[in-house]
Amino acid sequence: MGQRLAERFYCSLIAEPALKEQAFGQFEGMTTVALLQNNPDAAEALFTLDAEYCPPGGESLSDASQRMIHFLSSLEKNIIIEQYVLCLTGRSFRACLRH
């Protein structure tokens, strides 16, 4: 989506590592159905937005949102350009809005 927006508005695209999706560790790439079947307790914690739950080898939603918020806070201190377009996943965006 970011690439299409950049092309549409004739601007450069910067993929900012601080805005990447939450790391799901062992569950990365696993379908919701597979996670629910194979790891029901982990799925429950993950899908109920337990912000402190950390998937094995991943990061908690709380940690991911803090990483993003830290970056977003730095934007206002280091304004170089006047406009930004941010593309985030719904889960990450909701977590940031809660802070």
Write the layout of secondary structure elements.
Blueprint lengths: L1 H7 L23 H7 L1 H8 L13 H17 L12 H8 L2
Helix pairs in contact: 2-3, 4-5
How many distinct helices?
5
By CATH, the topology is: Rossmann fold
Quote the beta fraction.
under 5%
Distance linking N and C termini? 25 Å
What's the CATH H-level homologous superfamily? Phosphoglycerate mutase-like
Reading the helices and strands in chain order gives HHHHH
Mean pLDDT: 85
Largest β-sheet summary = none
- Shape category: elongated
3D structure, described in words:
The chain is mainly alpha-helical and 99 residues long. It has a single domain (2-97), classed as Phosphoglycerate mutase-like (Rossmann fold, 3-Layer(aba) Sandwich). The chain is 47% helix and 0% strand. The protein is built from five helices and no strands. The protein has helices at 2-8, 32-38, 40-47, 61-77, 90-97. Helix 2 packs across helix 3 and helix 4 crosses helix 5 (90-97). The chain is elongated. The two termini are 25 Å apart. One of its GO terms (molecular function) is isomerase activity. Its EC number is 5.4.2.-. It comes from Klebsiella pneumoniae IS43. This is Phosphoglycerate mutase. Pfam families: His_Phos_1.
Q: How would you briefly describe this protein structure?
A:
Its EC number is 5.4.2.-. The chain is mainly alpha-helical and 99 residues long.
List keywords for this structure.
Rossmann fold; 47% helix; mainly alpha; His_Pase_superF_clade-1; isomerase; 99 residues; 5 helices
